Structure formats: structure tokens, C-alpha cells
Amino acid sequence: MIQDVKDDLQHIRKMMEQSSRFISLSGLSGVVAGVIALAGAYAAWYIFKQHHINYFNDYRGGSTPGLVSQLVLLAIVVLVAAIGLGVLITVNKTQKQGLKIWTSTTKKLLIALFVPLALGGLFCLAALYHGLFEIIAPLMLLVYGLALINAGKYTFSDIQNLGYCEALLGIIAMCWPVYGLVFWAVGFGLLHIIYGLLMYKKYR
After folding, report:
1. Contact 34/190 with Cβ under 8 angstroms?
2. What are 134-164's pLDDT values in tens digits?
3. Which H or E element spans position 91?
4. Between the chain's N and C termini, which has fewer beta carbons within 10 Å?
């Protein structure tokens, strides 16, 4: 009798959790996003090299229109690839769990995540327009971190922890903006991979 009550309570708790939190995020999507980000950082370094700029010695924020357009295009490709593969992995996991992918919680999660990202993206574009190239990478890390902290209310608390790390790294990067690409690779690359592996081990 007592065991039946415990089982019922656990079932009710699980149903409440599923209705109030998005629990289908996959650690593998974090790993994939991190690998794509590292590849993007290397590609950015290579683009600098093609423009005869040794990033770690020569770059001080000055950029030609050609360089800027190539970096913006690269950023778009990295973003689309990371989000696209992440969505595919998450949808696949959701289907295996027999859950609905599109719920009221999903809507709240996406709004909480993408509203700060959209506003932050516009701010970064404004900084790019004014030639403030050195602060863009720190800004991206800070805005992304704040977006994750905001979205963490509707999914695993681990997302908020990742957000705090990203935001803190963005603040640190602002102190050494000339190494923004390095901090960007650490934040969007290494932190995502570490987070993804921990999530995969914890929730698989």
C-alpha cells in the first residue's frame, strides 16, 4: 500500500515536471554546438590569416569591409548549423520519449531564450556598425549567458549554470577584448562540450 502511494506520487511529480519544464534537451546537442563553434573559431582565425593579419599579434580591432562581411557570413553559418543540428537531436530525443515537442512550455522557453538573443544581436550589429569590433565577442558571450539564465526557468537548472559561466566569461573577456576570439572559442566551444557531456551523463 505504501509503495503504491509512493509510486503514484512519483508519477504525479513526473507529470507536473513535464508540464512545467522542457526536459527533452539533449547533452549531445551541446557537444555538437561546441564542436561547430570550435570549427567556426578556427575558420575565423584562418580568415584573418588570409587577410594577412596575425590575430594574436597584429589584430587591434581594425577591419576591412571584406573581412567584416566574411566574419558575419561565418557567424551566420555557425549559428544556423548549431541550431539546426541541435533542433534535430532534441526532436529525435523527444520522439523517443513519446512526448510532444510543441507545448506551452516550449513556447515560453523559446520566448525566454530568443528575445534576449534578438535584442543582444541588434546591439552587436550596432557595435559592428560603429566599428567597435573588439567588444562584439564579449557582448555575444554576455548576452548569450543572460539568455540562458532567463530560459533556465523552463528547463533543467543546468542551463542556468551554463549561462552564469558564459556571462562571467563575457565580462572577463571585456577586460582583454583583443583576445575576444579566444574567449569566444572557450565560451561557445569548450563550455558547450563540457556542459553537453555532463548533461548526457546525468540525464541519459
Report:
1. yes
2. 888 999 999 999 999 998 888 777 889 999 9
3. helix 65-97
4. N
Name the amino acid, one letter, at 87: V
> Which residue is associated with the grid cell 575558420?
43
The span from the CA of 78 to the CA of 55, in Å, is: 20
Tell me the C-alpha distance between 201 and 109, whole Å.
23
The residues spanned by each domain of the chain are 27-203
DSSP-assigned states of every residue in 28-49: HHHHHHHHHHHHHHHHHHHHHH
Q: Measured between alpha carbons, how far is residue 152 from residues 21, 68, 69 in Å? A: 9, 33, 33
Task: Reduce the secondary structure of 121-187 to three states and give it as a string.
Answer: HHHHHHHHHCCCHHHHHHHHHHHHHHHHHHHHHHECHHHHHHHHHHHHHHHHHHHCHHHHHHHHHHH
Decide: 165 and 183 in contact? Cβ < 8 Å: no
Q: Is 54 helix (H, G, I), strand (E, B) or coil?
A: coil
Q: What angle do CA 140, 75, 67 make, to 5 degrees?
A: 105
Q: What is the DSSP letter of 196?
A: H
Cα separation, 204 vs 97, whole angstroms:
11
Give this prediction's pTM: 0.80
Looking at residue 173, its pLDDT comes to: 93
Nearest to 40 by CA among 137, 130, 120: 137
Q: How far apart are CA 98 and CA 204, in angstroms?
A: 15
